[in-house]
Amino acid sequence: MYFEDYKVGQVFDEEIESVSFTEEEIIEYAKKFDPRPIHIDKKAAEKSRFGRIIASGSFANMAFWAQWVKTGIDADCVVAGVSVDEAKWIKPVYPDTIYNIKVETVAKKVRREGKDGFISQKLMAYDPCGELVLSYAVTALVNFSGETQTNE
User: Fold this and answer.
1) What is the pLDDT of residues 13-65, one digit of tens each?
2) What is the DSSP letter of 122?
3) Nearest to residue 114, comparing CAs of 4, 11, 1, 23?
4) Kind and range of the H or E element at 111?
5) 27 contact partners, CB below 8 Å, separation of at least 6
6) Are strands 132-143 and 116-126 parallel, antiparallel or unpaired?
């Protein structure tokens, strides 16, 4: 999709594959990037308010975002991400739980007419009960059709 194809309020959900994570994946990431006991130590996590290992917020953001990227919907048009506008961790992300994801286009603004513009999207991840666990809002620089990616 190109800049002109995006519509504010447009939702992508059926296109995005559900995902779950193993405890080992969560721990492996956290050991490198967020080594808090609730992410890496089973015994400490069991004693916490969460009752077991939970995913680091940064892991959850990127792992859910990867499901959107894997759709390839924006593969030909995105030049680069320009900002993370918001990240909210509403409920813990647990291992071996299937999460559903949707991405909504929330804003768009032309930067250079006929060349490129900014698309803002909000990713939302839901647990099996349909409760929101995470929201992650980002803005990307996106080409109009016919434009090639540049480093400007």
Assistant:
1) 999 999 999 999 999 999 999 999 999 999 999 999 999 999 999 999 999 99
2) E
3) 4
4) strand 100-112
5) 39, 40, 53
6) antiparallel
**67-108 pLDDT, tens digit each:** 999 999 999 899 999 999 999 999 999 999 999 999 999 999
Which phi and psi (to 5°) does residue 5 adopt?
Answer: -80, -25
| CA distance linking residue 34 with residue 59, whole number of Å | 9
The type of residue at 120 is S
Contact (CB, 8 A) for 137 and 121: yes
With contact defined as beta carbons under 8 Å apart, do 91 and 124 qualify? no
Q: Residue 94 is encoded by which pair of tokens?
A: 């647990």
Tokens of 129: 């009960």
How is residue 140 annotated by DSSP?
E
| 3: Cβ contacts below 8 Å, ≥ 6 apart | 77, 108, 110, 116, 117, 119, 142, 143, 144, 145
The reported pTM is 0.91
How many helices (H) and strands (E) would you count in the chain?
4, 5
| R_g of the chain, CA atoms, integer Å | 17
